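Supplementary Text 2. Reproducibility record for the structural model of the 476-residue chain.

All settings were left at their defaults, and a single model was retained for analysis rather than an ensemble. We include the record here because the model underlies the residue-level annotations in Supplementary Table 4.
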Amino acid sequence: MNNRHRVFTTARRMSVLFALLIGLALSAFPVLPAPLAQVPGANCAQDVQVALQRVSAGCLQIGRNQACYGNTLVNVELRPNLQPGSVTFAAVGDVADLASLRRIVTAPYDPAAGTWGIALLKAQVNLPTALPGENVTFLMFGDTTVNNPLGSMRAFTVETRVGSITCEEMPQSGLLIQSPANQQVRMSINGADIVLGSTAHLTAIGGSEMIISLLEGEGHISAFGQERILTPGSEVWMPLGGENGTTVVEPPGEVRPYDPEEMSRLPLTLLERQITLPNPIVTQVIPTGACTPRTDWTFIYTIVQGDTLGGIAGRAGVPLQELATGNCILNPAAIRAGETLRVPRAVAPPPVAVPTSTPIPAVPSVTPTLQQGPLAAYLTASPMRIPYGGCTTLSWGVNQTGEISYSNLNGLPVPLNGNRQECPMVTTTYIFIMAFTDGRASSATVVVEVDPDPICGNYICEPGESHTSCPSDCSA
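Retained model, structure tokens:
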């Protein structure tokens, strides 16, 4: 055997031996499946949990009127007067002032990359400046866009896009809004006037509809002169259209139960205040005999045109839900003129709105002559519009006498006739309600408008600002 053949034989034996060793090594381990990233949705539940943990850890220091990059991917468009690179908002934990952002976009879930866009916003809306620690929380997640958030989120547009739910833990794209406990906030979203003292979930599909679902508290949704009142477990929808497809084009629809399965997927753990999801409202009629109105409420109130159950509850001095339960009302938005309610005390009809073109009456210098005409309470404010931090004088009274059953102003006892100074920090509605023991009752309402606290840099020329004091907001 020559050397050449000997070398070839030795090499062949070594290769066979190496192959046998590799085979033995592989047989000792199970066959691994394909990487999870190659199987759409395989990591979905884990991705959701990781994302929530990142937001919780990365957005702890966010302040008022700021946005935090919660989880990839989040893209922003800066205001035109800002130079590229002047604001850093590209990684988890980055924080930017809302006044510097023109648009915020969170990305839809990508199972291959394991990304799911989340942005956390804290805004003043119309909360008093004197309460710097209290903010309204806005949580964007999934394929959601907020345009023109301005400096305090008083008015903005939002659009969400629908995608397939990849796993049980993955919610549809949307926006969560939560106000501080016992604080009502007013904002304009896609052209609708929204008042929330609560926690709500919002989706807005361009060219289709916007749906607002209430998870806690009370909500008032108004558009085109019509209002809907939301209670926990309910939702309302409004058609969207217009040039951008995200403008409310019709009044809100009828209140209906929300989808509890969808609500259970929401990332509620990222909210400032933890809540318990309520059951959906029940819309079917209660069978006869299944519920009995409260017999200890001996006063009867007849609903008139323009009444809302929330307004009646306020004038009656009881919570909305208590009034609804006491009258076996399952849907507080479904009351009709002519129906009667049991109430704990005499309740006056809603005050007639005074057109804005009507001259505002001066504050009466003397109490009106008594026993003249029908019973009528009066309530005035001078002035009716004040700057932020200013005060007004309220004066109230009634044109008849009798034995007083109760007399209160915004739920607090007051003399039957009087006046006092008030210094509200936000636009406030004052209601004077009185009743005599013989059943006569009347009420009066006045709205004191408060100019917002000027915020230089939010691109709104507000009262108290000028081109000299705030050139970025006010033109020359």
